[in-house]
C-alpha cells in the first residue's frame, strides 16, 4: 500500500475551497504527493512536469473544460482519470466515460467516498504483483511495468483501462473471464452499463497485440460469456 500512497495525484477544480478539502483529505490518508490546479493551463503545466499517477478533473473550468483537458493529457499520459462535476447529467457522464475516463463522481460528494474510489482505482491500475512484469504473444511483449506492447523495437502504449483488462485476462489466462468480471475489474462496483465500453477496449487491445485483429488468436470472444486470453508459457 505504501507504494500506492507515494503516487502523485493532480486535482483540478476552479473552487479553491474544494481543492483544499481534497488536498487535506488525501494528506490525512497518507497521500503526500498531491498537486492542485484551478484552470486548464496550470493543470497542463503540472501534468507535463510531474509523473502524475491519477487525475481528478472538474468538468467546468474557467479557460475550457475537463473534457478538453482530458484529451490533451491523453497525448502524453495514460494515467487513470476521475471526473468531478456538479452537473448530474447522463450526457456528461456518458461523454466522460466514452472518452475513456475511469470514474465519475457528482458534487457534492463525501470525501470518504472519493478517497475510497481513488484507492480502488490505484490498486486496480498499479497493484499487480511485481514478480510479474508481462508476457509474450505472437512475437510481442506485453509489459505490465511499462504499460506498453513492445514489438520490433516499437513501443505502443496501453491506456489505464487496457492495462487493467489485460492484467485481469492474463491472471486467468486460457480460462474464460466473464464480461461482469472484466467490467468489475475495470470500473469497480459501478460497472453496470459498461458492456459497450468493454467491447471498445477489447477491440483496441486486439489492434495492439494481435497480428490480425479481425481474426484474433489470443484475445478470444466467448459468445454470451466473456473473453479468454489464449497464451502459452513462452
The number of strands is 14
Contiguous helical run count: 9
Order of helices and strands, N to C? HEHEHEEEHEHEHEEEEHEHHEE
The SS-based structural class is alpha/beta
What about the largest sheet? 5 strands, parallel
Strand content: 15-25%
Q: Roughly how many Å apart are the termini?
A: 31 Å
Rg (CA only): 18 Å
What does this structure look like?
One of its GO terms (molecular function) is phosphorelay response regulator activity. Residues 132-231 bind DNA. This is Stage 0 sporulation protein A homolog. Keywords: DNA-binding, Phosphoprotein, Transcription, Transcription regulation. This protein has nine helices and 14 strands. The chain has helices spanning 2-5, 16-28, 40-49, 66-73, 90-99, 111-126, 160-171, 179-187, 195-209; strands at 8-12, 34-37, 52-58, 60-61, 64-65, 81-85, 103-106, 134-137, 140-143, 148-151, 154-157, 176-178, 219-222, 226-229. α3 (40-49) runs parallel beside α4 (66-73), α7 (160-171) packs across α8 (179-187) and α7 crosses α9. The model has no long low-confidence stretch (mean pLDDT 87). The chain starts with a helix and ends in a 5-residue tail after the last strand. The chain is an alpha/beta fold and 234 residues long. 41% of the residues lie in helices and 24% in strands. It is globular.
Amino acid at each position: 500500500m505504501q507504494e500506492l500512497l507515494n503516487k502523485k495525484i493532480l486535482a483540478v477544480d476552479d473552487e479553491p475551497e474544494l481543492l483544499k478539502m481534497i488536498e487535506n483529505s488525501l494528506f490525512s490518508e497518507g497521500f503526500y504527493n498531491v498537486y492542485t490546479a484551478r484552470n486548464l493551463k496550470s493543470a497542463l503545466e503540472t501534468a507535463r512536469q510531474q509523473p502524475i499517477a491519477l487525475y481528478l478533473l472538474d468538468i467546468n473550468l474557467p479557460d475550457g473544460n475537463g473534457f478538453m483537458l482530458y484529451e490533451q493529457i491523453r497525448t502524453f499520459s495514460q494515467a487513470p482519470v476521475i471526473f468531478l462535476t456538479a452537473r448530474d447529467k447522463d450526457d456528461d457522464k456518458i461523454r466522460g466515460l466514452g472518452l475513456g475516463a475511469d470514474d465519475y463522481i457528482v458534487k457534492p460528494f463525501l470525501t470518504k467516498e472519493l478517497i475510497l474510489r481513488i484507492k480502488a482505482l490505484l490498486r486496480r491500475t498499479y497493484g499487480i504483483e511485481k514478480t510479474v512484469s508481462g508476457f509474450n504473444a505472437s512475437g510481442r511483449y506485453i509489459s505490465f511495468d511499462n504499460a506498453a506492447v513492445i514489438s520490433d523495437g516499437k513501443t505502443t502504449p496501453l491506456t489505464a483501462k487496457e492495462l487493467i483488462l489485460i492484467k485481469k485476462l492474463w491472471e486467468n489466462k486460457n480460462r474464460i473471464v466473464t464480461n461482469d468480471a472484466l467490467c468489475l475489474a475495470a470500473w469497480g462496483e459501478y460497472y453496470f452499463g459498461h458492456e459497450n465500453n468493454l467491447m471498445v477496449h477489447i477491440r483496441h487491445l486486439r489492434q495492439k497485440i494481435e497480428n490480425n485483429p479481425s481474426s484474433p488468436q489470443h484475445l478470444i470472444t466467448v459468445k454470451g460469456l466473456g473473453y479468454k486470453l489464449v497464451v502459452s508459457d513462452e
